[in-house]
Amino acid sequence: MRLLIIGSMNGQIGAASKIAFDHGAKVSHAPDPSTALELARSGQSADLVMIDVELDIAAFIKSLKDERISVPVVAYGIGTDTETAVRAIKAGAKEYIPLPPDPELIAAVLEAVAEETHTLIFADPSTAEMLRLADRISGSNASILITGDSGTGKEILARYIHRHSKRADKQFVSLNCAAIPENLLESELFGHEKGAFTGATRRATGRFEQAKGGTLFLDEIGDMPPEAQTRLLRVLQEGEYTTVGGTTPIRADARIIAATHRDLPQLIRQALFREDLYFRLNVVPIRLPPLRERTDDIPELVRHFLSEAVREGLPYKIIDNAAMNRLKACPWPGNVRELENLIRRLAVLYAQETIGVDVIEAELADSSPVAVEADGLAHSVENHLKAYFSAHGDGLPSPGLYDRVVKEVERPLISLTLRATRGNQVRAADVLGLNRNTLRKKIRQLEIPVVRESK
Known about the structure:
The chain has 20 helices and 14 strands. By secondary structure, it is of the alpha/beta class.
């Protein structure tokens, strides 16, 4: 954990630094936000920033976002009045810490930030075996490719590997390749110079530069466009890169961990992913099993999510044995993310302390019609194809079968998924395994009515 303190802290910097140091944090100091930004641009960022409430917190957080630097910000100041705390939170701070610094409060904030991004809960033997592999390879610099269904916790595993590596004291930088528009992805990765393109009003550091000496996690690597794949391959081969609009080579010093829920060998066969890049990334493959294959993890995860709800001020809940067994029997197509959402609903919506199997059945039944309809659609397509091939005897259908079948099933499949996600296109793209921009394009092309997400 690296803590950056911005401001004078009214002479309390030494006391706060000692408290943080005693809890395992490395502490650095910047007198003002502009100096803090310079540190971040040079790769000397932090896992947590504490900033004086009297400084312009909103402008500082906006600058972080503009420079694509992701770090939680906590405000500090003299006084415990609610108005000051509310002002800090409204400006974008996650928490407000009054001065003089309280050891227990600072320790709790450091622990909360660490737990938010590093928690890895497990009890199943298959998960333990996977972690033993992660432990064996964490000390090397070899590239790692984590595969697994959406929602299984691939980024959490990547952070676990980083924490146990020789680069643990450096930055862990994450980039979701599916969340960035294609025309901006190279800038996100490698940074850009001022004036490199319309809107580039200042130099911006890329994720490679931010991860210098540390780990760069490339999530949803299967959605990376071809041009960015080519540049990434060149970096992995040559060990250097240039910014967009720049000419000076920069040495790349980041351990690459990539992840995807997609079938990369299949994408290679479809000429959508470079085979040479795949081999560069897949030096050490790790498969993260879906939740249905590691059911012994479920009770531990449930207890963890319930404890999180209590820390957020929600009532304490217990899941009885019958209800827990029902949870273990569920297929969990959305994996850990789906389980977490269910537990949060239970904590918020139900007044009783003990949750029984009847409540679980009712919650699971709410989504089952959509799942049944999706299964019916899949069976319908399969039966249709069997009949289509049977009609041609020993011969083959006319060319273009793939496009015809896709067109026939694509519209109802996307419509069904949007219904299941209550119109949430980001979640629908995740469920379908599509790039989010691709999904929006298909919605327009197929003239699919947009369902508004319920409040």
